[in-house]
Design brief:
Length: 193
């Protein structure tokens, strides 16, 4: 049975003075168009902007091609789209959907891509705690930790009384007297045999 598709246009926020429109009649243009919904969510909670605020940028403003905010947005949306390897960004730096999400459709210089490549993003990911002579972008680890706790708490009307961080979500049932059997299921001991 054929689906009933709406050919109505969907409008999104203007980026660098250009209207962004999504429609279902354009053919196969990109496989990542669903990311525009992630962008709408990001604008609601401000994840990329708030995350970028946890970084200190000591670079000369006149020489900056890729802002920390654009690089953070590029990396966050790239990971959300399944591009976890930095090497993917040598192609993605030309992707119009990712550029729309990062808020940067064109490069300032003719010899640059709109978005950052793997080497530039690598320097962002491996930024030291603070800017230094040779590392101009630094991060505040405590601010990043606070941000993710704040985002979690803002997602609830009433803050939960307890938060369980399950760092090993694998729940393997134990049988018999295996080594480590007393450290299973949030510390609950298995029944005595």
């Amino acid at each position: 049975m054929p689906t009933q598709c709406s050919r109505d246009l969907f409008g999104y926020e203007v980026v660098e003075g250009r209207q962004v429109v999504a429609a279902f009649d354009g053919g196969a243009v990109t496989s990542d168009a669903g990311a525009l919904l992630l962008g709408a969510t990001d604008r609601t909670i401000g994840l990329a902007t708030r995350f970028a605020a946890c970084f200190a940028d000591g670079r000369a403003p006149a020489l900056i091609e890729h802002s920390v905010t654009a690089m953070v947005a590029q990396r966050v949306f790239g990971i959300a789209l399944g591009y976890e390897d930095l090497i993917d960004h040598d192609q993605l730096r030309h992707d119009p959907v990712l550029a729309t999400l990062a808020g940067k459709l064109t490069a300032r210089r003719r010899d640059c891509a709109p978005l950052a490549g793997k080497s530039t993003l690598n320097r962002l990911e491996h930024a030291p705690a603070g800017p230094s002579r040779y590392h101009k972008v630094g991060h505040d680890g405590a601010a990043i930790e606070r941000l993710f706790v704040d985002l979690f708490l803002e997602a609830h009307r009433t803050p939960p009384k307890e938060i369980i961080l399950d760092l090993d979500a694998t729940d393997d049932p134990l049988h018999g007297h295996q080594e480590g059997r007393f450290f299973h299921g949030y510390g609950a001991c298995p029944p005595a045999a």
